Amino acid sequence: MKTDLDDLTAFVAVARAGGFRDAARTSRQSASGLSEAVRRLETRLGVRLLNRTTRSVAPTEAGARLLDRLSPALGEVEAALDVVNGFRDRPAGTLKLNVPGSVARLVLPRIVPPFLAAYPDIRLDVIVEESFVDILTAGCDAGIRYGERLEQDMIAVPIGPREQGFATAASPAYLDRHGRPKHPRELLQHACLQSRFRSGAMITWEFERRGEIVKIDPAGPLIVTAGAATDLAVEAAIAGTGIVGLFQDWLQPHLDSGALEPVLEPWWQRFPGPFLYYPGRRYLPAPLRAFVDFIGATRSPSSRA
């Protein structure tokens, strides 16, 4: 039965990942080992479960039906095995989180080191993705996103600062040459350093003052992928290329040093901080339960507001 369960788990990993190589990365097994496990399962069942091409792998109709039935069943098996973890002196295992780059840069550095020091038997696996993903399909235990991108059927727990802000800034030299905008619409006459999601969607700049909300689709000489190349936009702004729009916390060190000067500061919009989200389950995996308890216990009084 052990071999059968391993083969079923391998099939689910490959079907969810859409390929053997991606499944190998998420499951920490070899692609060849996963391929052999799926082949054994198909031989045993006498039916093809996956359609394989040189570029992708997708479930057949039989494979899709098996996946639908297996996913909750294997989830229950994992939950049952994890109950034993509760009898250990310290929780152990891997906690896999899916987070955007801003969280990896601005939120997790204050949480991860003390968490790992408190739970030395837990291994934290952080995957950075800007787009919203189905954490179960991605093989993750939990994700961190902002409120407008949370699924309604997920449990959400506040993590990190409860308020953050969007800021715009440029080098003093750029502003001396091109002028200092007084209203967000004046940005349309400036060189703005844009960001886009991996999907290709451009990020709109939103401002707010005294109840007036202004949304701007800026234009300029540089477009970067959010997260992966954000620091390039910041460095370009420092060099005088144009105006950058980003999380205030990301820009604050450069604002403090004078390398960047605030632009339209009275219009900077504030918004709620991120949430840790995960499926509602009767039994949480021990590493995730430890993480949820840790962030709840370590939130400062100001962050609870």
Structural summary, described in words:
With 305 residues, the chain is α/β, with parallel strands linked by helices. It folds into three domains: 83 residues, Arc Repressor Mutant, subunit A, CATH 1.10.10.10; 99 residues, Periplasmic binding protein-like II (D-Maltodextrin-Binding Protein, domain 2), CATH 3.40.190.10; 109 residues, D-Maltodextrin-Binding Protein, domain 2. A hairpin with a 2-residue loop joins strand 9 and strand 10. Helix 1 packs across helix 2 and helix 1 packs across helix 3.
List the helices and strands and how they pair.
Blueprint: H1 2-17, H2 20-27, H3 31-45, E1 50-52, E2 57-59, H4 61-83, E3 93-99, H5 101-106, H6 112-118, E4 122-128, E5 142-145, E6 154-158, E7 163-170, H7 172-178, E8 192-196, E9 205-209, E10 212-216, E11 222-225, H8 230-238, E12 243-247, H9 248-257, E13 261-263, E14 270-272, E15 275-279, H10 286-298
Parallel strand pairs: 3-4, 3-5, 8-11, 8-12
Antiparallel strand pairs: 1-2, 5-15, 6-15, 7-12, 7-13, 7-14, 9-10
Helix pairs in contact: 1-2, 1-3, 1-4, 2-3
Task: For this entry, give a set of tags.
single chain; 24% strand; 15 strands; D-Maltodextrin-Binding Protein, domain 2; Arc Repressor Mutant, subunit A; 37% helix; 305 residues; six-stranded mixed sheet
Give a short summary of the structure.
The protein contains 10 helices and 15 strands. The chain is of the alpha/beta class and 305 residues long. The protein folds into 3 domains: 2-84, Arc Repressor Mutant, subunit A (Orthogonal Bundle), CATH 1.10.10.10; 90-162 and 273-298, 3-Layer(aba) Sandwich (D-Maltodextrin-Binding Protein, domain 2); 163-271, D-Maltodextrin-Binding Protein, domain 2 (3-Layer(aba) Sandwich), CATH 3.40.190.290.
